[in-house]
């Protein structure tokens, strides 16, 4: 490894920032999709329960 110049540092920083942004976006999307799925399953369970209540009355 030679001496790191300012441009090398900037390049490394740029790639690191891009990488972290990419990972963050993936994590956020994963969390968002997971919470969305959870909410959908909760909503559908409530919906089914409501239908059953209506049927039994």
Helix-strand topology string: H
Strand content: under 5%
Class based on secondary structure composition and strand pairing: mainly alpha
* End-to-end Cα distance: 78 Å
Largest sheet, in brief, is: none
Q: What is the total tally of β strands? A: 0
Q: What is the CA-based Rg, rounded?
A: 24 Å
Helix content: over 70%
Which geometry do the CA atoms define?
A: rod-shaped
Number of helices: 1
Low-confidence stretches: none
Comma- or semicolon-separated keywords:
1 helix; 57 residues; mainly alpha; rod-shaped
Provide a descriptive summary of the structure in words.
The chain has 57 residues and is an all-alpha fold. It has a domain at 32-57. Helix content is 89%, strand content 0%. It is built from 1 helix and no strands. The protein has one helix spanning 6-56. The radius of gyration is 24 Å and the shape is rod-shaped.
Short summary of the structure?
The protein is an all-alpha fold and about 55 residues long.
List the helices and strands and how they pair.
Layout: H1 6-56
